[in-house]
């Protein structure tokens, strides 16, 4: 099964992706996590992407399409995937379609997580992220057992530069302008499932699993 998690920053894509990928044994490909690893590794891609990311903008389509096509290509043909944070523009969605057609794959479901902007601002400014294993926490909604330390791997948690209040507004604007139109693109294709992402984490996971059917 091949899935996309579509939704604004802070909608819970990363939180849900970890659970849904495990539930259906899918490879989880998060464009944001991949880019942050490139930035940490000070690679050429990381150096080119960093400025856009810190300012809350989108990394150019050609860089993203090359990066994600390579990652999807690296997966064995038998492996299903769950895309998180990609595609984010019409050009990326069309590029992905082409890539999938060329490799004889198709999309089974696009999960659209719906959360209003006011809730997103609270989620993003309180988010704490593990730079080592990519686990996600929230200072109020899902705090780690020990303040500032990842439950899973023990690394020090980070407050992402792009989760500072002054950058969050730009990211939400980019979402509404560039990414939100993809909801209609996939709805027309008959693969979209609208999910209320404002409920608690378990309820959202259950709704996603139900929307994906048996996973066959
Ligand atoms: P995204 O990957 O879409 O940007 P995340 O999964 O990182 O979003 O979640 C953003 C923040 O919101 C995190 O701090 C996370 O702990 C919190 N969060 C995720 N899902 C929920 C939920 N259903 N209710 C409350 N907080 C949530
Ligand atoms: P995320 O972790 O999904 O919130 O992504 C963090 C940042 O990485 C975004 O604000 C963008 O700057 C960049 N990014 C991630 N995915 C993409 C994408 N598909 N297209 C363009 N930029 C992206």
Description:
The chain is α/β, with parallel strands linked by helices. The chain has helices at 13-24, 31-40, 44-55, 61-74, 90-102, 117-125, 165-179, 181-188, 201-211, and strands at residues 3-6, 27-30, 81-84, 109-114, 127-129, 136-138, 192-196. It has nine helices and seven strands, in the order βαβαααβαβαββααβα. The protein has a five-stranded parallel beta sheet with strand order 2-3-1-4-7, with helices on both faces. It has a two-stranded antiparallel ribbon with strand order 5-6. Strand 5 (127-129) and strand 6 form a beta hairpin. Helix 1 packs across helix 9 (201-211) and helix 2 packs across helix 3 (44-55). It is globular and about 45 Å long. It binds adenosine-5'-diphosphate and adenosine monophosphate (AMP). Adenosine-5'-diphosphate binds at residues 7, 9-15, 123, 126-127, 136-138, 141-142, 200-201, 204.
